[in-house]
Protein: Hexosyltransferase
Amino acid sequence: MKFYISTKGIRRVTISNGDGKGSAKTTTAGTGAGSARRISVRTVFPVVLVLGIVLPFLFVRIAILMLESAAACSSLECAGWRFFSGVDTSLELRDELTRALIEANEGNVNEGAGSFNELVKEMTSNQDLKAFAFKTKSVLSQLERRVQLARQQESVYWHLASHGVPKSLHCLCLKLAEEYAVNAKARSRLPPPEFVSRLVDPTFHHLGLLTDNILAASVVVTSTVESSINPEKLIFHIVTDKKTYAPMHAWFATNSIKSAVVEVRGLHQYDWSEEVNAGVKEMLGTNHLIWKQYYNKEKDRHYTQEHSRYLEGLSPSSLSLMNQLRMYTPELFPDLEKIVFLDDDVVIQHDISSLWELDLNGKVIGSVFKSWCGDSCCPGSKYMNYLNFSHPLISSKFNGDQCAWLYGMNIFDLEAWRRTNITETYHHWLKLNLESGATMWNPGVLPPALIAFEGQVHPINSSMLVSDLGYRHQSAEISKKKLEAAPIIHFSGPAKPWLEISFPEVRSLWSRHVNISNKFIRRCRITG
Structure:
């Protein structure tokens, strides 16, 4: 059987059998005559079979290339180039994106999308890389401003919370003031007459404490006595202001400390010379003017890592007479030769009698420099963190990388101090800072003291003191082993242990020394 088809259209179809006995013809109208071409079924079938195998793979390959091009390219030209050439354009895309980001970084930030979802929605409708870079920069800039504002607000709220007086402490002060007025025992002499001679005896261990916080003072005294090997050698000299004198006296008169001697004096009981009184008033006035300049600067200050420290320096306690009077320690204790000075936010965990045997080698003050940080300075405790080394007078006299010594626990050789002009130097630098517009150091009590005591500080073994327990991040970095081994721990920072914002993991080290059996403690609902 044979099958004939005309190439010029179906003009004639002839079908015949193999033996030539029969035939069929079909003729159709067509335009012009053409030569016939004969196509065999055996030729068509293999072609169809090959196409059936190849076309699915070709379709899959085209689909993959188109999807990759849509994800990696920002234009149809890029997609076409990738399809026809098969070249990976990731490097070209990276370079194009880099150029767009650099251009966006140098350009002005316009209003961007309000959220990440809005950014995605905009970019799916417009795949231009330059627009993407500018939109991304705008969104990130908005987020950065929000984060900075949140951190600044957190610092301000933390600052306010740390310097308020808890209701329980205010209650305790009022209850004890009432007790002082109605109870003769609360007004009894401190110390008893038989121990008065010990107040100036250099063979005893004298400790000084300047505070108006009754609860804190009780913890310092109690923890020191409980940790001491020879508590009968301890003499506590507590100095407070006039308003706190009565309740402070009432507390220690009605809660006598066995073995140790406690003296409570009010500043109104000192009979200083006119020269000393004038110096104290000048110091307070100058510090107040400097504080006002710092406060005015704070209004325009943006958030930095040092912001919380800066706010801490602006606290009302930095203007407190109790904090500033340590520069007049020789006048506060005129009959003593050596004294260990403690802040009211410390806890004594082990015996510290070795401090009185320490030779200061002619220096005025003994202090810890590095605390819990080993051989390096603790975070934020270098001179550059306290003093402004962009000021020529500071940069010419001090080393910014030098570790600052710490408050909290200090030994003062009062005889050596009286032979120096440290207090006069302190006044001199206060005036220079005021005249410079408060540009020489960050606010706080320690920076001018670092200058005044320069060259007069003897280092104490850093294992004696662990500080920074009032700072969130630092307290978390201190190991439990190092914390328990330290003879003295210092809750320096805003989170004082008597505040609600204190950290529970370290607060117990302080609260276990609170006398919760005392009736005034219970009435004021002070918990351990």
Remarks:
- The CA atoms of residues 471 and 493 lie 5 Å apart.
- The radius of gyration is 42 Å.
- Residues 3-11, 20-37 have pLDDT under 50 and may be disordered.
